[in-house]
Write a structure and sequence with these properties.
Layout (H helix, E strand, L loop, with lengths): L1 H28 L6 H20 L4 E2 L2 E2 L1 H20 L2
Helix pairs in contact: 1-2, 1-3, 2-3
Length: 88
Amino acid sequence: MIIEIYGLIRSIAILYIWIIIIASFLSFVRPDPHNPIVQTLYRLTEPVFAFIRKKLPFVVFSGIDLSPLIIIFGLQFIDIIIRNILIG
């Protein structure tokens, strides 16, 4: 039971990491902002990006936003902690 819960949490975290990666790559190519896929990615990622930018203003320098990287590292760190707590 515990392993299944961990597997679900891990799957959700991996899915969100891929959403962050795709949204980050899309920021380089400037897609149509009216595209429903682009709007969905923006709605899923921008609140978390804005929170990180607000709490850690130094992650944006010289026009480079490192908040996606911080979020990915944070999710990986949380995954390790949950795995160690649940599985041992």
